[in-house]
Amino acid sequence: MAPRIFVGDDVTAFAAGAEYRLPPRAARHVAQALRMRIGDALALFTGAGGEYAATLAHIDRRDVVVRVERHDPIERESTHAPTLVQSLIAAEMMDLVVRKAVELGAAAIVPVQAARSQGIAADRAGRRVAHWRQIAIAACEQCGRNRIPDVSPIVTFDEWSDARAGAAAILDLDAKRSLAAQTASAPPRAIAVGPEGGFTADEVQRATSRGAVAVHLGRRVLRAETAAIAALATLDAIAGDAK
Ligand code: SAH
Hints:
The protein is α/β, with parallel strands linked by helices.
């Protein structure tokens, strides 16, 4: 696959033959990290749908300019892709989960502050969300998705469950039903994953009383990041485009 570059939603339409100066981050990536040459192929995507085949037209110390060849309306979204409702966990594991969730097709990511989550100071929360959005973009560049899944602002678990727990599955070690069985009958629209210390019994109760179904992933206790990845892969294999 040709290198793929997100060019931001400031660009709404490219015409065939148009020349486009890459933004600085992308220009450095193409010229310095990838050492691409004039005439090399790349793909640009804006997040508004499909991708643009392009070739490198001009490189100098300041600028990297590409020529847009044509629009390809291809999408690589999965079917029944769920929203990942991820309790805040250690920073580097949170980054890992965001990256893997995008690769596995998650439609959106909602970071939640669960009762046992590691807290994030209010003044840092906006920066963390912006950081996760950058990770989501990089993952889309890598995996071929042309739609950037939304990473929403951090909400408390209760805010999420009161408004949106219906049609969700909450991962709970003590659940009677497996995520696989649930997905085969009614694929959940969202999957909620607990923090390192697990969800509290109150949280599970609150979500299920609002329509969520509690599901397990087998007998072993997975780490939170493993549980998120395993759940998304299970859903993709049973109801998504990995079927
Ligand atoms: N120390 C906690 C375990 C937390 S594991 C305890 O003993 O309860 C972190 C999160 O991953 C859990 O809250 C749950 O959402 C999910 N998880 C891990 N393994 C799971 C499994 N086998 N089934 C369902 N959920 C699991």
